[in-house]
Amino acid sequence: MKRLLSLFFFLALLSGAAVAATERSPDTLVQQVTDDVLNIVRQDKDIQSGDTKKAIALVDAKVLPYFDFQRMTALAVGRNWRKATPEQQKRLSEEFKKLLVRTYSNALTSYKDQTISYKPSRVEPGETDVVVKTEIVQPGSKPVQLNYALDKQADGWKVYDVMVAGVSLVTNYRSSFAQEVRDKGIDGLVTMLSERNKQLESGSK
C-alpha cells in the first residue's frame, strides 16, 4: 500500500501544463501541480472506482512530458545500460516507460484521503539538479517521506527518480533487471518487460 501511495504522488508531481515545468521552480512545481491533480482525482469518481483506462489517459495527457525516461531506464538497468546497443536502449526505454505509466495509473486509482506536507527547500540560482522533499500524511499511519530528484533540461525540469523513505523507486528495479540480463541478455530483459506490460494490460497481476 505504501508503494502504491508513493507512486501515486510521484504521478501527481509530474502532471500539469507545460508552462509549469519551464517557469516554476521545482519546489513550487511540486506543490502547485500536486494540489491541482489531487483536486481532479477527488472529483473523478471513475478513477476512484478503479477505472484504469481513464487513469492511463490522464497519465498520457498530463504526465509523459515530465519524465526523463531514458535516464530513468539507465538508472534502473545500471552498468548493463552501456552494454546495450542504441536500438536496445530505445526498446528498453519504451517498455520501461509503459511499465511505469501502468504502475502509476494503477496507483492513481488507489487514492483515498491522503494529503501532502511540503518541506522547506532552498534552490540556489543556477542549480540544475535538485531534490524536493515532501511527506505523505495518511490518517492513522506515520507520515511517509517522499523525495523527488529533478534536473533542469533545455525544455524545463524533469523528474528522473523518487525516493521513498530513502529508497529509490527507480534503482529498486536494478537487482531484478541485472539478474534477467545475466540469465538471458539485454534482449531477454526487453522481452521480460514486454510480457509484464501485456499482463498489466490484460488485467493480470
Question: Summarize this, please?
Answer:
This protein is α+β, with helices and mostly antiparallel strands and 205 residues long. It has 8 helices and 5 strands.
List the helices and strands and how they pair.
Layout: H1 2-14, H2 18-23, H3 26-43, H4 45-48, H5 52-62, H6 69-77, H7 86-108, E1 115-118, E2 129-137, E3 144-153, E4 156-164, E5 167-168, H8 174-201
Antiparallel strand pairs: 1-2, 2-3, 3-4, 4-5
Descriptive overview:
The protein has helices at residues 2-14, 18-23, 26-43, 45-48, 52-62, 69-77, 86-108, 174-201, and strands at 115-118, 129-137, 144-153, 156-164, 167-168. It has 205 residues and is of the alpha+beta class. The protein has one domain: Tgt2/MlaC (Nuclear Transport Factor 2, Chain: A, Roll). The protein has a 5-stranded antiparallel β-sheet with strand order 1-2-3-4-5. A hairpin with a 2-residue loop joins strand 3 and strand 4 (156-164). Helix 1 crosses helix 3 and helix 6 (69-77) packs across helix 7 (86-108). The longest helix is centred in the last third of the chain and has 28 residues, at 174-201. It is globular and about 45 Å long. The two termini are 15 Å apart. Residues 15-22 have low confidence and may be disordered.
Based on the model shown, name its key terms.
205 residues, alpha+beta, Nuclear Transport Factor 2, Chain: A, 5-stranded antiparallel beta sheet, 8 helices, 55% helix, 17% strand, globular
